[in-house]
Amino acid sequence: MYETFYGFSESPFTVNPDPRFLYMTPGHFEAYSSMLSGIKERKGVTVITGEVGVGKTTLIHSLLKDLDNRIKTSFVFFSAMTFPQLLKKVLADLNQSIHDPDLYGLLQTFHLYLADRLANNEIVAIVIDEAHGVQVDVLQDVARLVSRPNPSSDILKILLVGQPEFEAKLSGDELKGLRDVVSLHRRISTLSAAESEAYIDHRLKVVGSRSDAIFTRDAVERICTFANGIPRVINLVCDTALINGFARQAQRIDGKAIKEVTKDLAYLAVNPPRGQRRNAASPPLVSPAGGKTKYRSVAVAALALVMLFSFLWVTFMQKAAPVRNKDQVVKAQNQEERTSMVEEMEAEARPVPIETAEKRSTLFSLTKKHYGQTSRAILDMVLEANPSITDINLIYVNQKIVMPWLSEMSFVLPGPNNLYWVHLGTFANKPPRGLFEDEAALKGKTIQVVPRKVSAHETWYRVLSGPFTTRKEGSDFLKALRAKGFQFQFSPSDE
Fold first, then answer.
1. Which pLDDT tens digit goes with each residue over 427-444?
2. I want to staple 419 with a disulfide (CB 3.0 to 4.6 A). Which of 68, 369, 385, 467 is the partner?
3. Which pairs with CB-CB distance under 8 Å and at least 24 residues apart come from 293-296?
4. Is 427 helix (H, G, I), strand (E, B) or coil?
5. Same domain, 134 and 195
């Protein structure tokens, strides 16, 4: 209606969730990162809460768009379902035929699907929007799906997204079983006044305009005051104002016009958000692993001792029996893998380092500050840990940047079919064919060159060597390469 008059490529303030219009405040960024890590790092159940209209569903659509093909997803957006109805929706999303529609048959079909995905090293994610409206008995059944002690349950990830009242429901005695499997909880805060202004400008820039070309300063202030930090209300006020402006042929919307609009939309007036306002996503209201965080380091240490004892026992038995059959070799390899898993668990138990971007900070300067050096390979790892950064040259002030723990094992990467690949380096240009194949130290290994988009106009190239059946085998190969004098591309970048 008004798009042509104001020179927009499309309507800037539609209330439909569209990832192209997503405006990432620090709170939205942290919530998105939690959603992504909850699924990719296999953390059981992740809970995201926020006020009506704060952008939760838009974050979900952005997440679903960004997940790779290895992650199979079901998006449940109608919360008034029985558990069998929910399972039918999930199986339909996963393209599974239903032969037996009773609960037992549905569960059997679902668990067979999980077993198939486990064999392919894939992840199954169920995203439930409007989780506050899901019945308690259904949530109890959802909790049982992920708490069942079998390997296929480990690849099932649940994301529950709802309004703040879901927190109260979750804290009830009836849902203790669900709380016990919640590993992450973030609450998305409403926008500050400055964020609300930036949000309006962002949406207008997406359609080829800008805020000061369309709204006067007084108009913007009135919009932000009325909306009280709720993006959906901002959208409705702005859209109505533009419709009225077009009817009057007003080139610019002023404060008086907004006053008239907000009077007509008085029913949308937002009360102060429930609970204390936060500048970013809130810390978990439910402690990871059901409030047992303080025991985590003890548990990791105990597990390490148990696995160390097991490792020493296997080593002793191997020395006592030098002639080993195939089963013994497999068990030894599995034990080595378990040892590396303990190392990963100990690293995971440490707090994740965060760097906060300041004025004139770049990703290059932050990585150099944190690690004492920077290189494309290190930046590659930092980008991997911060999936919401889609342009390596663009970060904003006060943005929180995860700086992953880096060790030699960090450069042994999991791949398809439960195999591993050694990361040899990351390059600005595609390496010429034969550059690595001709290296004597790499003879007999397959070289893969994997493109990685680091901005709209820039692609880097990650070089991998493999495959290896265990992570330790990859690590040993890495050490052997170093001993032979192979030059890895992890030296400081000249950027």
1. 877 777 666 666 666 777
2. 467
3. 296/349
4. strand
5. no
423 DSSP β-pair partners: 464
In sequence order, the 6+-apart residues with CB closer than 8 A to the CB of 445 are 465, 466
Nearest in space to 310 (alpha carbons), one of 326, 296, 325, 331: 331
Q: Both 204 and 87 in a single domain?
A: no
Examine residue 11 and state whether it is found in any structural domain, yes or no.
no
Angstrom distance (rounded) from CA 154 to CA 150: 7
Give, in order, the Cα–Cα distances in Å from 62 to each of 8, 22, 367, 387: 23, 8, 27, 12
Residue 161: CATH number of its domain: 3.40.50.300
User: Which has the higher per-residue pLDDT, 248 or 395?
Assistant: 248
Q: State how far the Cα of 373 lies from the Cα of 446, in Å rounded to an integer.
A: 29
What are the pLDDT digits (tens) for 313-362? Answer: 333 333 333 333 434 333 444 444 444 444 444 444 456 688 888 888 88
Q: How far, in Å, CA of 188 to CA of 281, rounded? A: 5
- The pTM assigned to this predicted structure is 0.56
Amino acid symbol at 194:
A
Q: How many residues are recorded in the chain?
A: 495
Residue with tokens 């723990």: 405
What count of other Cβ atoms lies within 10 Å of the Cβ of residue 458?
12
Q: Look at residue 4 and tell me if it is in a domain.
A: no
> What is the distance between the alpha carbons of residues 99 and 116, in angstroms, rounded to a whole number?
18
- Looking at the structure of the chain, the number of domains it has is 4
- Strands of 420-427's sheet in order across: 412-414, 420-427, 458-468, 446-455
Dig out the tokens for 375 from the structure: 């290189």
Q: pLDDT tens digit string along 196-218?
A: 999 999 999 999 999 999 999 99
Dist. CA 261–CA 404, nearest whole Å: 48
The answer to whether residues 323 and 443 belong to one domain is no
Asked if 403 contacts 374 with a C-beta cutoff of 8 angstroms, the reply is no
In a domain, 8, yes or no: no
Dist CA 109 CA 447 (whole Å) = 39
Contacts of 111 (CB under 8 A, 6+ apart): 152
